[in-house]
């Protein structure tokens, strides 16, 4: 039976694009964080939508599970198979064409395997902006971004990937092609099918192409780092900047002092913008379609007002592109510094912005009581209510040993998130990693509706089984 389906795949995509030897398959089976590796029957690399449809139809006929895979940068073990060895990994990497750019409609139509950075560059060459931006942009694909509804650093202004998509082309679980590549901003013709496939983590069908929204490229972008007393002050500063700068405020990231200590220890060459150590920092980005001088004036007057009102302690505004990049590098190096220091217990949560200071205070206190000396590594897209609330062991203790407390730490953090009306997965999705947590925190009504959708669209259960549900 395995030979039968592999023969069909070879007939569809050619021998060279069906990988079955263990060594070549290994990278496709491994989770990005290197904490998990699955097993698969084969890795199949189709080159166009028709080939994807034929592969899915063959798998449906043979009841062979399919794991769609893009750049494999997902952080919840969604794009790798389980250990049964029964599934085919369907890599979309060869579907990497930019099909069209429509400057007047401000859209581009791209295939699912396009790398995000290539899509940004193509938009830039056309004089426009595709605003999705995240640290994995050199490797992640549009299909993966859509399937995880990725967020990133510009959600405050432009929204998540869901808000950046106007149309999809999907191969459903029966191997039929749904051409929903409409670049329409208004289309009230029944159920919003597009929305079902976005964020579905490959459990309902395979996304093969998408129509993405483009924006005018900003004429000026400014970055500032603001030193703060507390998360409460960060939320107040966010409110002040939103009131003064409106849609020009494109980024607002929170970083605790401990995060910057970690970065300084692991990357001593990166600049330290302040002589003093402050409890919290906000990285602020302003984009404007007006002149540089206008953007400078707006940012400086707003931050000046915040300093006068006691909503900030100190601030540096970047005066060159290099300085701005250096400030962003501080933020982007936090995950790298964490990884270099040792594994953490990670959480990707969201809350109403107003509830974040209370949540941090309660979570810090509860963790100190349960694990005295443990070190929260708190940073994230505060403007979107999204925190990466990670927990490192007490200084000098083994990171590996501390991972043994993962279940207890998760329970403290996620129970508090639920109590504050938040979400246990803001950006990264559920995959296999948070499946049990999802079952714990979603209501039976919500889970029941999700199962009904899955059963209706994938009755054979072949699309990325064991993920989400
Ligand atoms: P993969 O990892 O290959 O797949 C992810 C999921 O999508 C899997 O369930 C897979 O089955 C499914 N899938 C992939 N392609 C398709 C398709 N064509 N059709 C159907 N299903 C498909 N996320 C954020 O939201 N914000 C961030 O700021 C952010 N920063 C990150 C930084 C780093 C360094 C890393 C490693 C990850 C980060 N992520 C972030 C995680 C993020 O989800 C991914 O980087 C990205 O969106 C996934 O794209 P991918 O192509 O790698 O997908």
TrEMBL record:
Would I find Cytoplasm among this entry's keywords?
no
Listed A to Z, the keywords are: FAD, Flavoprotein
Q: What GO biological process, any one, is recorded here?
A: respiratory electron transport chain
Identify the PROSITE patterns for this entry. FAD_PCMH
* GO molecular function list: catalytic activity; FAD binding
Report which superkingdom the organism of origin falls in: Bacteria
- Please name the Pfam families in this protein's record: FAD-oxidase_C, FAD_binding_4
Cross-referenced Gene3D superfamilies: 3.30.465.10, 3.30.70.2190, 3.30.70.2740, Uridine Diphospho-n-acetylenolpyruvylglucosamine Reductase, domain 2, Vanillyl-alcohol Oxidase, Chain A, domain 4
Q: Which residues form the FAD-binding PCMH-type domain?
A: 36-217
InterPro entries noted in UniProt: FAD-bd_oxidored_4_C, FAD-bd_PCMH, FAD-bd_PCMH-like_sf, FAD-bd_PCMH_sub1, FAD-bd_PCMH_sub2, FAD-linked_Oxase-like_C, FAD-oxidored/transferase_4, Oxid_FAD_bind_N
Kindly list the cofactors needed: FAD
Concerning its family, UniProt says: Belongs to the FAD-binding oxidoreductase/transferase type 4 family.
Name under which the protein is recorded: FAD-binding oxidoreductase
Q: Which organism is it from?
A: Massilia arenae
